[in-house]
Amino acid sequence: MGIRGRLRLWFYQSRRFGGRYRQGAHSSAILSKILIGKDAEGQIVLGDYVICAGELYSFFSKGVISVGDCSYVGQGTRIWALSRVEIGRRVLISHDCFICDNLTHPLNAQTRHQQYMAKHGFPFPERIELEERPILIGDDVWVAAGVTILRGVSIGQGAVIAAGSVVTTDVPAGVVVAGNPARVVKQLGTEQTMERGVVNGIA
């Protein structure tokens, strides 16, 4: 990263986000797609050797997103957190995925309308219930293109989520899931999942 890039990163980390965005060594992100409110309580943290071409959004200014070392987030992917989205190490998240730990809009029609109107300058309700639940994605997971992962889901180490799947329930480690809703379609052998330890010189 050149001097101009380091200065831009410093500006985003300290001035725009007040230290609530951290980016590890040898990592890169499209900083205009890192979204945290000015007075936010939330936090977005990228580990080392992370490439993030997607959007990371601390929803309503209090969500926490963490991306582990050597992970990748593809173009067009959106990860929104109102509580917590935790992504492990060496996770590959492809293009045009949507990962969100909340409903994004209230179920109640009147409150939903108030939320919409607030975007046009009207007073925002003090508390909107979006029933947030954390999402946890384990190490070595591959999320293929166009996948949706809904609130409260945990995905086990080394699992593969097939393209276009909608994940509504927990996924065990070492399996392939596919469909809407996603179901287990294949059990992976242990040789297809990475053992703990150093990989290409990086733990």
From TrEMBL:
GO terms for cellular component: cytosol. Belongs to the transferase hexapeptide repeat family. Coiled coil: none annotated. InterPro entries: Hexapep, Hexapep_transf_CS, Hexapeptide_acetyltransf, Trimer_LpxA-like_sf. CDD domains: LbH_MAT_like. This is Acyltransferase. It comes from the Bacteria. The keyword Acyltransferase applies.
